[in-house]
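Consider this:
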Amino acid sequence: MTRSRVNTNAAKGPTSAELRKQVIEAQTMQQARYQSNDRNATASLETLKNKGNVSLDQIQLIEKCAQKQLWSNRVQVKILRLARTIADLNGEEQGISVPKKDISP
């Protein structure tokens, strides 16, 4: 029986401590944004629209994709929450940026 070898030359990702720091910073951003203990994971659509720095164009893009993919409203909100969380982890306070090449409406 042969075992697969682990590639020891592969680029290393962030350490657990670095990831923890990044998560804590994202949580701090969310607490400041919502001015409460709310987080993206529980934010309503209205809260995301009003305080989540989500533009009308971004909402319309999600709606366009939702119509094509037959997503429910619940799925749309979950996608916005996830996108807002990814932006927070990247330290992006102003809006949710998704490169056009990554979108296929």
Summary: Residues 16-34 form the longest helix (19 residues). The two ends are 47 Å apart (CA to CA).
